[in-house]
Design a protein that fits this description.
This is Dinitrogenase iron-molybdenum cofactor biosynthesis domain-containing protein. It contains four helices and nine strands; from the N terminus they run ββββαβαβααβββ. The protein has 194 residues and is an alpha+beta fold. The protein starts with a strand and ends with a strand. 21% of the residues are buried.
Length: 194
């Protein structure tokens, strides 16, 4: 199994989107076969992960869009913090990652054997179906949580293009079909939204 860690010195990088150091570790039978740190250009991040065939990405905070795009290439475990050596040790021992979640993240994000049971719990439809979240639980008058979220509750919309992260081929986006479900007509790689 190949695991990628977004790192800054000896810790997991706090923000994946601005980190340019990726450590790739090859693990076989709970033993490390090799490990190497790569300095990457964030503009080339998708082709980097395609070239290296990573099975699992462990990182700190990550934008929703980047997490969604990378999850088409690999399993992503976000919002992890702490010493990279402690994270690697937990990985080798197949331990739960809940102790390494960033402050404020739900502790029940990882239940049981994370390598076998980890499922990204992305919300695909909000409760009322209109992009707004549930009412806040605070005292009356202290905010009701009726906002559209930090990105405005909007997707990319029906227009635009799908782009191949491998060869750069562009095709028109088909309404109702996510780009990550489209295969590149030239090389067969799963595409991303451009």
């Amino acid at each position: 199994m190949k695991v990628a860690l977004s790192v800054h010195n000896e810790i997991i990088a706090p923000v994946f989107d601005s980190s340019n150091n990726i450590e790739i570790i090859e693990i076989d039978n709970s033993k490390i076969n090799s490990r190497k740190v790569y300095k990457i250009d964030l503009a080339d991040i998708f082709s980097f992960f395609l070239r290296n065939s990573v099975d699992l990405i462990i990182c700190g905070a990550i934008s929703k869009q980047l997490e969604f795009q990378l999850s088409a290439l690999s399993k992503v475990i976000p919002f992890i913090c702490g010493s990279k050596e402690e994270i690697i040790s937990a990985l080798l021992k197949n331990k739960n990652f809940s102790d390494f979640l960033m402050p404020g993240c739900k502790r029940n994000r990882f239940r049981g054997d994370f390598l076998k049971n980890y499922i990204s719990k992305g919300v695909t439809k909000m409760p009322r179906g209109d992009g707004t979240g549930p009412l806040g639980q605070g005292p009356l008058g202290a905010g009701q949580g009726r906002g559209r979220g930090r990105m405005g509750g909007q997707g990319f919309g029906p227009g635009g293009e799908c782009v191949c992260p491998n060869c750069g081929t562009r095709i028109p986006h088909r309404p109702g079909v996510p780009c990550v479900q489209e295969k590149c007509p030239k090389c067969g790689t799963m595409m991303i939204r451009g």
